[in-house]
Amino acid sequence: MKNILLATDLTANSDRAMERALKIAKEAGAKLHIVHVLPGYKEKKLVSTLKEDTEDLIRGYIYDYKDSQGLNVVINALQGGEAYAEILGYARKIKADLIVMGTHGKTGIRDLFAGTTVERVARKGAWPVLMVRNKPTGGSYQSIVAGVDFSPGSRAALRTAMEISPKAVFSVVHAYSIPVYAGEMSYVYIESRAVMEDEQQKMLNAFLKTEAAHFKKEHNGATSRISGKLAQEPIYPAIVQHAKKSKADVIAIGAHGRVGPMPGLLGGVAQDILAEPPCDVLVVRD
After folding, report:
1. CATH number reported for the structural domain that contains residue 119 in this entry
2. Which of 97, 145, 152, 269 is most buried, judging by how many CB atoms fall within 10 Å of its CB?
3. Cβ(149)–Cβ(258) under 8 Å?
């Protein structure tokens, strides 16, 4: 990674995302761009004062960060239109590899989450988005759960997570479902279940083999710590429950997956996890 963009609203708990972004930039040797979108005031003198005060506030935090030495940080208080549009425009300008943001403050209700700045950046942008929920402890992420449906998006999410924290333990969860038959047709369900489980396990094993080889190639022969879990249940609970059980630091998901009889990680699932995250969440588009 060369350019990481932290978009901060400077509200309560925004320091969590800032600290995580600083850690990632430090470990990756990347330039960290920190932006805050100011209200759309027309008074030039007021805007100028707000811009200066905001940038000074952020500089103060960077100065107090214990591992700030050697970090390449650019700070900008932006004044313009809607926050999400300014953030995406800046990401495009610097060719960002990752956008880091804090939580939206409206957890638990999807309808409230829809339309927030985080949701719009994740949905409308082409860049990986890391939403930071928890206060960082220690160094880099240690445990990452990746929900996969074998689509380009879910594969990209896993690879991005591996780039962010190559030393983490990765648990790849693939959830699937089959029709349930009743009565005299129950034997069809039993047979279908066995066949489907075997097919899905083979696909998961092939996926893991490919990703382990890719990791080894990208990290100078290093071996990844990656394992797979097959779950016959809906995607959302499979991912969230496994993340809670394994005490994961991050959930990595693709924003969109394949459609059809066996839908993958569609936008709805990504949005549900972002709306009520049990931990930090990394969302990557196809």
Report:
1. 3.40.50.620
2. 145
3. yes
